[in-house]
Amino acid sequence: MKPSVKIIAVILLISFFGCTNKKGMLPLPQTSLNTTSVVSGCDSTIVSYQKNVIPILSNNCYSCHSTAVTTNLGGQDLENFTSLKNYLNYQFQANGIYGSKFMHIINQTSGVLPMPPTSKLSVCDIAIINKWIADGAPQN
After folding, report:
1. What is the DSSP annotation of 29-79?
2. What is the pLDDT of residues 6-51, one digit of tens each?
3. Where in the chain are the domains?
4. pLDDT for the residue numbered 7
């Protein structure tokens, strides 16, 4: 085999096997919105959708963003996993940071409508959701 063919084959193999994108998730650049941080008294090392994320959403979001709300004030159903996952994949730039619109909203980034509207999620709750998204937002 010619050296140029070998080089092309190696490049193609690296390109194919080097992709770490989770199926169905858009890759996010490393920004302050999607990195996990250590928060004192907050265990965000192993995060579960059922155990950790649903309670946060239930306590802070479902009153306006659920399938049970007939008017769905926010226009976004966060109770339905498929709807939530699609919302996580909606990417845009706010305040110079490119990332998930959902993360911009719960981090209350300048330029987006802050949610929840009456207060901000705790640093721990945001760290847990960040970790869950960084893990590929599994339905576990």
Report:
1. -S-TTT----BTTB--SS--IIIIIHHHHHHHTTTTSSTT-SS-TTS--SS
2. 566 555 545 444 444 444 443 443 344 444 455 678 888 899 999 9
3. 22-134
4. 61
Residue 14 to residue 38: CA distance in whole angstroms: 33
CB 102 within 8 A of CB 86: no
Give the span between the Cα atoms of 78 and 57, in whole angstroms. Answer: 7
Residue whose pair of structure tokens reads 């576990």 in the numeric block = 140
* Among candidate residues 98, 106, 51, the one with its CA nearest the CA of residue 78: 106
Task: Give the integer Cα–Cα distance in Å for 41 and 127.
Answer: 12
126: left (phi over 0), alpha (psi -120 to 50) or beta: alpha
End-to-end CA distance of the chain: 47
CA dihedral 125, 66, 118, 102 (to 10 degrees): 50
Which residue's structure tokens are 């599994």? Answer: 138
For the chain, the residue count is: 140
Question: Rounded to an integer, what distance in angstroms lies between the CA atom of residue 125 and that of residue 58?
Answer: 12
